[in-house]
């Protein structure tokens, strides 16, 4: 079994210009812990996790709008991790599990030619290894 067999699709992604507030809203409304950040062509640029948002410093400005002094919003691109884990679609599930465990991440994007095609979570991996089908 491979990453493509257990990944969740369609995948929601953010652009670097998305505000951290928009990112948090998308994560909480869809139950994601990590979101891929992609360019206009769908190429993976980085990853944004819940922890990245929570660690982002509160800049001086209006906390209700997220706009910093000078008019610049706090964006996904300003706090994303550029070198997070991503796995190829044809990678074996056991190797996906090892990489996720080694990187200490709960989810990872699945890429094909640099484009995000799905997401794999620890639950997806556990279900696959236990032979449990998704409901």
Automatic annotation (TrEMBL):
It comes from the Bacteria. The keyword Zinc does not apply. Signal peptide: none annotated. Coiled coil: none annotated. Residues 7-65, 80-135 form the CBS domain. Keywords: CBS domain. This is Putative signal-transduction protein with CBS domains. It comes from Amycolatopsis camponoti. The lineage of its organism: Bacteria, Bacillati, Actinomycetota, Actinomycetes, Pseudonocardiales.
């Amino acid at each position: 079994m491979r990453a493509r067999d257990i990944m969740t699709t369609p995948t929601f992604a953010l652009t670097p210009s998305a505000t951290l507030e928009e990112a948090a809203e998308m994560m909480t409304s869809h139950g994601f812990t990590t979101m891929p950040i992609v360019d206009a062509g769908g190429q993976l640029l980085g990853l944004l996790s819940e922890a990245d948002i929570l660690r982002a410093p509160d800049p001086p400005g209006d906390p209700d709008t997220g706009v910093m002094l000078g008019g610049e919003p706090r964006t996904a691109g300003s706090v994303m991790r550029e070198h997070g884990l991503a796995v190829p679609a044809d990678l074996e599930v056991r190797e996906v599990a090892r990489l996720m465990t080694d990187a200490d991440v709960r989810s990872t994007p699945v890429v094909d030619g640099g484009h995000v095609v799905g997401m794999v979570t620890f639950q997806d991996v556990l279900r696959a290894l236990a032979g449990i089908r998704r409901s």
